[in-house]
# Entry
Amino acid sequence: MPTITLPSRCDRAAAEAVLPAMIASLGSGPLQIDARECTQIGQAMLQLLVSARRSQGGATILPSPVLQDIARLAGLQADLFDGGAA
# Structure
């Protein structure tokens, strides 16, 4: 299973930086996204994570507490995490 590790600051620039790796992983089975070190998450990264979850094969996200909180506040728990919560 390919793994992509996100940086601590997940802003638009970070989303643009990891997008090619996510695209390259399409069709190679499930993707794992390690977001356990994320301390800042912007809208562009949230959109990219939702897209990764909805893509063929889906993605499993290993969230940080900050990502869990932001997903809850944005109403995206069910979109980002298995079972609706991490």
